[in-house]
Amino acid sequence: MLTPLVVDGQACLTNNNGFSRLFFPETLAREFDPFVFPAKKGSGTIRVVVLGESAAQGTPDGAYAFSRILSRLLESAYPELRFEVINTGMTAINSHAILPIAEAMSRYRPEAVVVYMGNNEVVGPYGAGTVFSQWTPHRGLIRAGLALRRYRLGQWLSDGLARPNPETLRGWGGMQMFVEHQVSADDPRLEGVYRHFEANLEAICRVSERAGARVLLCTVGSNLRDCPPFASGHKAGLTEGQMAEWKRLFEQGVELERKGQLAEAVAAFAAAWAIDDRHAETAFRLGRCAERGQDFAAAGPWYRRARQLDTLRFRADDRINEIVREKATGTNRMLVDTATILEQASPNGLTGRELFYEHVHLTFSGNFVVARTIFESLGKRLPGLKDKRTGSILTEAQCAESLAFTPYDQFRIADEILNQNLVKPPFTAQAYHAEQVAELNKEFEILKSVKTPESLAACSAAYQRAIEAHPGDGFLNWKYGRLLAEEMADYAAAERQYALVQLRLPLFHRALTARGQMLAQLGNNQEAIRQFVRAIELQPNNYDPHYQLARVFHKQGHAFEAIAEYRKTLHYRPGYAPVYNPLAELLQKRGQVDEAIAVCIEGTSANPQDAILFCNLGVLLDTAGRPKDAIQAFKRAMELAPDSADIRRVAETVLRRRGIPMPR
Question: For domain 575-664, which CATH number applies: 1.25.40.10, 1.10.10.60, 3.10.105.10, 3.30.70.1350?
């Protein structure tokens, strides 16, 4: 999982993103956020390794992960010491993947290992509800298979022998991929999941302890109040009559709750619960009614019960946290009860969107609570910190300033959560979804004020101050480059920031791609191509450098090369909308009209709301002598974009030439 490199003449190690191929098919490979640390730890250096999944990684933006806040807290409180906080979190992994990470990192003698994991035990690799691999109750077979997959031949054999999975063939689809892989709370496979988690957690502790590290085992928090169950199942064995009565009572409760008749709604839901006590949404609605009625003590247990019964198990359940607590015994192990601390930091003890963006991913405030809790635990138990604190403990606001968590970043994250995540299943199937989205939209409208030139200039100044205070922090250069490029169109300044990222994080392929985009904007196409090619060498299965390379080739008139890179883009990101129109255009110009039509049909299948793609398909179908099919394509384009004068003009021009009236 580590790659050696030299930075400023010093032997270092950085993340190897090929590591995830041990656990994921090529089209679904995940990545670490970039990190670099010296191979030989310097004197006076305290090395802290963070292990975990996407919540530990810092999703939706690792620049504000609790590991980075922890680093700032330690540096401020202990200014005479040097700290390396290495975040090895990764999206979609679980304890089966985290154990080999712990084994690799233990060779570099960390003083402390922080373990924040448990959300993906069911849905991650080898889990009972995963799409990545086959479930097996035999941990020994899993370990043996992973040993085989350490070699390219083993990966090739494993991928070749695996049964084709439609979800994986379509590329990364986020949580939506798991909708058909539900696991009920009484599924017998869960006991196997818990056994695997317990065994892996114990192995992580032992390998870390043998390296001389203190192990901080964190319970895992999740959103109780503002995250209804993603899916609900029914109790086995209910008769048709019982189901009909349950449905009547449940729907009656929903309607009464909508009218604000909480006592009557609770009575209806309680009666429904008496028939079916395995339905997660019923439990959640009982919790919501209790909360709205100010009975917070009653609300909490119902919300926890709803989490436990959720059949899409994206959140660590009670048993996972029980295992964490059970393992946190011994001289070199310490329990960090972050789940409880997060509840104590929440209104009325009910975790919600103050600390969580959605189900498990922490807001900046949530990450600060976790970081501060770990910071205090390290201060108490790590021998190297005893009686050495001479500096101040930063506040949340000071940490935000140090990490340049600007209003622009708050806007960008809110945009991603609201307009990319919550608009897709399984979020769209949650109870209260419309109500939640409406509230978030109100907040989002306020955040839009950051788009003014004055506000963006203030955000730019905040980044400059943070970079001046922490000139070696490549994440700050990376984020500042994005602000300059995406919002201020200062491509030259952005290119300079991305060049600095490359100095700090030489193998960070996304920075290479971003720098290439800036160079292309500045007209330096040859250097842009070199950046894209290097990015592809580092991460061949990432679609973006292939797409950017295709655009440059297209602009230069190198059709053959552009077509090849557009096709590679679609291989690594099936359905990627921006590819289809330019690819079809190039194929048409080369006289490959049938291939161009096939590309557009594939594109409209993957992007059925793309009006321009339907319009271009109509043009191609007419060129191929298929006017009836062309009419249908134009008709669909105008249905999707009835106010588009350009689409109507194209359709009229094409059809008038054939004497065909416009479709109504």
Answer: 1.25.40.10
